[in-house]
Amino acid sequence: MSKDLDVQNVVKSFGGPPAVDGVGFHVPEGSFFSILGPSGCGKTTLMRMIAGFIEPDSGSITVAGKSILGLAPNRRPVNMVFQNLALFPMMNVAENVAYGLKCRGESAGEIAPKVDRILGRVGLTGFGDRGVHQLSGGQKQRVAIARCLVLEPALVLLDEPLGALDLKLREHMKIELKQLQGEFGTTFAYITHDQSEALVMSDQVAVMARGRFEQVGSPRELYYRPATPFVAGFVGQSVRWVGKVEQRDGGWVLLRTAEGLGMVAAWDGAGDEAQLFVRPEAMQLARTEAELGTLENRFEGTLTNLLFDGAASSVLIAERATGTEVRVALPQSGPMLQLVQGDIVWFGWAGEAGACFAADA
Predict the structure, then answer these.
(1) What is the per-residue burial (b if ≥16 Cβ within 10 Å, else e) of 330-359?
(2) Domain with residues 239-358, CATH architecture
(3) How far apart are alpha carbons 146 and 355 in whole angstroms?
(4) Under CATH, what is the fold of the domain 5-231?
(5) CATH 3.40.50.300 domain position(s) in the chain
(6) Minimal CA–CA distance to 184: which of 34, 64, 31, 35?
(7) pLDDT on residue 334
(8) pLDDT value of residue 1
(9) How far apart are CA 94 and CA 79, in angstroms?
(10) Minimal CB count within 10 Å: which of 110, 150, 210, 322?
């Protein structure tokens, strides 16, 4: 039987507005599903309902087609990895991994080969006798994962498990977690406020805000085809403008900002005002207007700041006519690398490159 997770119309309130408000989603067996959202959006409450630490006010939660509501956490085919990992400091690595098997009543003869096998699969062969204090942050993460996977759960829940790691280790562990999930084929449900974690690791991502899912889709869909202004602004970096609709031509509109900046956008929505989101990397930089070719939106400006961040470097440009400051990604090669503060440059983007929504959406 498929060991998938199905959540339908789940609601949870703690006396005020619902922390989780009618959420529903499906996670196929063997996939990596992430819930992405800011602090306080309800994602941890949702995860704790799946784990069994709190019960929903209404709705259903099933794993492999069977309801898990009312079951104690240790009776559910679910294991959870917390941000603080919750490893036992008085136990060595092997004892930590074996703990769940012992609680399940398995014998020492059954446990030992399972522990050795799982430690090998997470790259910790020979670490069984080491104390937790002797491990690096990444090794502790792998022990916590091994302790879950050795129990062969239908579902592993991960509650921001990389949050306490330094940046470089976090980047490394994102790749390791994705590789481990693929190797074991276990269903992972992951919650995070870090969009990079969600986009890099996941097959599907749900963006959550104010207790509801704004959009569920592949990382590529969320990034390139956001369904709501919240998703457009929360996932990745975007430059946002609000303007009045001055002209309409089929699926195209001409927006005019309060500062007087006019721009063309693809939009077939209704309303007299719209908001437009454009990725900094969707914009092109040039020394002359002619270099921008046929781009519908072309502006001249003065480079006011260069924000160096390696491959993510960008520049701030004050548009000449209105003084509007715009952030544009800096190419990684070519003549634009020689730009300095005070340079006069042109920038532009295609009309279909942005995501446009009603101003009050």
Answers:
(1) beeeeebeebeeebebbbbbbbebbbbbeb
(2) Beta Barrel (2.40)
(3) 42
(4) Rossmann fold (3.40.50)
(5) 5-231
(6) 31
(7) 80
(8) 47
(9) 18
(10) 110
